[in-house]
Amino acid sequence: MAFPNLFKSMFTKKADTTEVPESEPAGAQKFGMFQGVFTPMVIIILCMMYLFQPWVVGNAGVMGAILILLLAVSITLSTALSMASMTTNIRIGRGGAFSIISQSLGLEVGGSIGLPLYFSQAFAVTMYIFAFREGVSWLFSRVAENPEWIQASSFSWVVDFGTSALFPWIIDFVMFFIIFAIVKISTEFAFRIQYVLLAIVIASLFSMFGGLAKIDIVSNWGTIQWLGDFDGGNTSFWIVFAVFFPAVTGIMAGANISGELQNPRKAIPNGTLYGVILTTIIYLALIFLAGLLIKTEDSVKDFYYIFIDRSYVWQIVLVGLLSATFASGLSSFVGAPRILAALGDFNILPKSKFFSKTNQKGEPQNAIFFTAVIVFLTLLTRDLNAIAPLITMFFLITYAMINVVVLIEQSLGLPSFRPTFKVPILVPLLGTVGCFFVMFIINPAFALISMGLVVAFYGYLLKRELTGQQGDSRSGLFTALAEWATKKSKKLAPQKERRAWQPELLVLIEYAKELRGAYRMLYALTHPKGSVKVLGMQTPDNKGRLENYLPALIETFENANIVSSYSFIKGNEYGKVVSVSMQALKTAFFKPNTVFLKLDDRADHKEEEYISIVEQANSTDWGVVFFAPYETNLGIEKTVNLWLSDISDDWVEQLDLGNNDLALLLSLIVCKNWNGTLKIIRIIEKGAHTDAAMKQVNYIKELARIPQETSVQIIRKSDTMWDEVEHADLNIMGMDASNLDIKRLRKLPDLLSSSCLFTLDSEQEGAFA
């Protein structure tokens, strides 16, 4: 995206009608790039230059100060570029950074960042008011040091007032009410005042550089301090960096009022980038200015006031300092309620509708009053130094998450990510790493605390199950991860490993009644890691009923956190439809591995159709499960009998249980979901020894990691063996695919007085895996 002409875009008053309008509150005042983004951002960034820039140069030297500036700007510039990329790709709504993060990573992540960001902006108002007071206090201290400035004794009360205990309170609360009154009148009025304040800041810059007229530049250049001594070793490079870094923050000033910009898609990226570039040039020039103005005999205390004391007209610089702190507080007061209102738009906060409500001008009136209360209460603390590092941390976490959003979006490579302003992937990577690096450089303890608070609030919002008006890219992220994992899995093993097996059921139904009473069974078989894919076999008679029934059924599975999906397939022959579906799904990686069929006398399917499905499954390596319910219920869902038979003599050498693996695995899954007990029924031939059979089952228990409390019963095969077994809520046993007798399988639930599962292995299961 090419930058438009700077001055033309700065003073544009009308919105670009070719651009799709962004979401906005009704009646919102629209601001251009210069008024809404560039001006407040530049003033906030330059606010730190008056006192801290000469202190940085005095400690780190000119070269050290340049290095600190470049390191700090590289992080904020990366974030500004990332934000520019995202704002040219999405329809940004209210809340700036909150809107950007929410639309990519979801409301939970956006909210967990947005709320701390709101409090940071609100607390920043208090800090700027305190900074304003410090400037006024310095003025009164100068007056006290120079009594000749006030000749008449009638003005001596000025000095007395400046040194009184009430002075700080009066200044703080007067400034608070002035700022609040300006914001309450209208945002437009607040931004118009910023033009005057920006002009004063510019005038102060001329006065600061005018101080060069009072010195011998050539002589001072020869004594310039290129390398610093860091206060004789009492400080360090990273401490100075930590003090200076907040000076280059403030890039969210325009984004915070994104809902009230004429064209946020252009205003935010252009205004932010222009602001970063301009302020970086100014700071770079100020480094050399400070180097020329600092004298070798200056102490650390002198460094703070060099730009004021050695300027051409110090009064202009002092007024510039006061104007910058006042404007910064004003801008923060404008931005904070917009973030709060945006959080209210998505029901993230208690009383969200109250906070999101706007007046006829489109301004969040209730959020403004609430923010005023927050600021007023923090003024009573008299000192925000205790939580000031936490405020900086929340800003840095916000910057980091914006970079993370772009990093994820670029990595996914989805067609929806096509910003008109593109940045290399190295940019958001540098921004992400840089933000977290700076957090731990400034204060490791506060870094951990701030991240802990964000994670805690994220957990709270996760429980709220928020629903947004727009989708986000999280599904794309997980899809991309799944695709990557699929490719890696296929390289490692063309077919799924036995250790990776889990029940993935294909369920075909023709009538709704086929699954009534089977839901509990399906849940017990697939929770928590399995899946259910339901195929609705459409015929002219059942089309409408299936279309109404299947979505509700799938919603039930999803509410139980079971991966589920459904689709419709036209056909008249039950067996043929299942066979065709298995063949169609054969080459898919994430495909069902087991066919689930309900065996019920009330079903209209013929025996031949079931047999054809089993034959098809046997030839294509699908497992088969027949569910034969007993009086449509599963009892109290506590006991399971696992029937083992037809185990070969060389099963130990082959580690092969024959057609018993699927039955064993499903027994363990069902028992776990029921929190029930398992009993193994070993069927042996008439002439077999029971001791050998018992030893065999105990060894199977050991190899298959079956719970030790599982009981074992050895019975001999006979027509009456069903009567020898204690009642269970479910009986699971393998079936003979070569001699399938559907009528016999249908009778067994009555013989056992309980529901039954009959299984056929696919050779992909592994009880010993």
In brief:
With 769 residues, the protein is of the alpha/beta class. Helix content is 57%, strand content 8%. Mean pLDDT is 84; it is low at 1-24.
**Gyration radius over CA:** 37 Å
What is the first-to-last residue Cα distance? 56 Å
Structural class: alpha/beta
Helical stretch tally:
29
Beta strands, count: 10
What topology, given as strand order, has the largest sheet? 3-2-1-4-5-10-9-6-7-8
- Helical content stands at 55-70%
Q: Which whole number gives the mean pLDDT?
A: 84
Shape: elongated
> How many strands, what sense, and barrel or not for the largest sheet?
10 strands, mixed
Poorly predicted spans: 1-24
Beta fraction of the residues? 5-15%
Describe the structure.
α2 (33-46) packs parallel to α12 (264-293) and α7 packs across α15 (314-345). This protein is of the alpha/beta class. The protein has 29 helices and 10 strands. The model is unreliable at 1-24 (pLDDT under 50).
